[in-house]
Amino acid sequence: MGKKVSLVLGCSGQDGALLSLSLLKQNYEVIGTSRKIEKKKVSPINNHSILGIEKDIRVVNCDITNFDEVSYLIEKYKPKEVYNLAAQSSVGKSFDYPKETIKSIVEVTLNLLEVSRQLNYNGNLFFAGSSEVFGNTKSKATIEHKQKPVSPYGIAKQTSFNLVKLYRELHDINCITGILFNHESPLRSKTFVTQKIITEALLCSKDKLHKLKLGNINIERDWGWAEEFVDGFQIMNRSLNLKDQILCTGRKTKLKTFVSIVFEKLNLNWRDHVVVEPNFFRKGEINTSYGDPYPIKNDLNWEAKVNLETIIEKLIEFKINS
Ligand code: NDP
C-alpha cells in the first residue's frame, strides 16, 4: 500500500514547516504549497532547511485562491488530510493590508471548501483559526465565547471559522477549525514581538547602551510551544468527532513578564534597556487574551505542556547558536 498523503497549504511558515516535519516522521508523503516556489527537487524554503526536510517535502507553486489549481492538487495527490495554514498572519500588518489579509484567509478557505464540495472530497480538512476572533477575553475563552474581533485579521478568521462550520453542517464536509492562541518556536517570523524581544535582548547583552523599544507591555497573552500545537492539529484532523476546538495553554502572562524572563536569562535587568514607545501602541489593541485548555484535553487528550520559561530558554538557545 502507498504512503498516506497530506496536503499542507502554507507549508513554508512556522507551523507549516513543523507540521510537515511531524508528518514526514510518521511516514506521510507531504505535499506543500507556497507562492514562492519554482519547479525544484529541493525546497529552497529556509524553515525547511533548518528542519532538514528540504529534500523530503514536495513543495508546489499554487495560487490557493484559484479553484482549478486547488482541484488539480486534490485530484492528483488524493490527500487523506489537508491542513490550511496559509494566511497573511500578522495582526499588525492586517491594518495596513486589509485586502490581502482577507483574501489570504477568507478566499483561500472558501476556495478549499468549494473544491471539496464540488469534488465530493471525503478527506479531512483542518483550518487554522485564531484567538483574535474573540477580541478581549474577560475569562478563559471556550469555543462558545463571544466573538468580537478588532482587526481585519480577526474579522477574516471569524468569517473563515463560520464558513468552515457552515460547510460542515450544510454539505457534510469533514472540516474543522482549531482556534489557536499564540504559539512560538525559533521558526516564528522576525516581525513578531516575541522574536524582536529575543533578538534585541541579545544585542543588549553585547551593548549595555542598546535599547529595546516596545509598545504596551501590559497586554496579556497565552503563549504555547508550536511543536505541541501542530500535534494538536493532527489529533483534531484524525478525530472521528468533527468539532472545532481551542488550542491554548490556559496560562496568561503579561508581555512585561515575558520581557523580564528573557532579560533575566541573559543576566540583565530589563528596566535598564526597555523603552516604552507610545507611538507603538496599537489602536484597538487586545489587552487580555487566554483560553480554556480543558475541553480539548477532555475530548482529545491534547494539552500544551511546555511552560513559558522553557519556551524562552529554547528561543534564546536557538538564536545564540544560529
Ligand atoms: P506564518 O506567517 O509563519 O506562515 C503563513 C504561511 O501562509 C506561509 O507559509 C505563507 O506561504 C502563507 N501566506 C502568507 N501570506 C499569504 C497570502 N497573502 N496568500 C497566501 N498565502 C500566504 O504563520 P504561522 O505558521 O505562524 O501560522 C499558521 C497559521 O496559524 C496561520 O493561518 C495563522 O494565521 C494561524 N495562527 C498562528 C498563530 C501563531 O501564534 N503562530 C496564532 C493564531 C493563528 P508562502 O509565502 O510561502 O506562500
Short description:
The chain is an alpha/beta fold. It is built from eleven helices and 13 strands.
Q: Could you name the key traits of this structure?
A:
11 helices, Rossmann fold, binds NADPH dihydro-nicotinamide-adenine-dinucleotide phosphate, 42% helix, 2 domains, UDP-galactose 4-epimerase, domain 1, 15% strand, alpha/beta, 322 residues, globular
3D structure, described in words:
This protein has 322 residues and is of the alpha/beta class. The protein has two domains: 5-183 and 224-247, NAD(P)-binding Rossmann-like Domain (Rossmann fold, 3-Layer(aba) Sandwich), CATH 3.40.50.720; 190-221 and 252-289 and 307-321, UDP-galactose 4-epimerase, domain 1, CATH 3.90.25. Helices cover 42% and strands 15% of the residues. The chain contains eleven helices and 13 strands. The chain has helices spanning 14-25, 46-51, 67-77, 91-96, 98-119, 152-171, 193-206, 226-238, 255-265, 294-300, 308-321; strands at 5-9, 29-34, 58-61, 81-84, 124-130, 175-180, 183-184, 212-214, 220-221, 224-225, 245-247, 253-254, 274-276. A seven-stranded parallel β-sheet has the order 3-2-1-4-5-6-11, sandwiched between helices. A two-stranded parallel ribbon has the order 7-10. It has a two-stranded parallel sheet with strand order 8-13. Helix 2 (46-51) links the parallel strand 2 and strand 3 (58-61). Helix 7 (193-206) crosses helix 11 and helix 9 (255-265) crosses helix 11 (308-321). The radius of gyration is 20 Å and the shape is globular. The termini are far apart. The model has no long low-confidence stretch (mean pLDDT 96). NADPH dihydro-nicotinamide-adenine-dinucleotide phosphate binds at residues 10, 12-16, 34-36, 64, 85-89, 100, 104, 128, 130, 180, 182-183, 189.
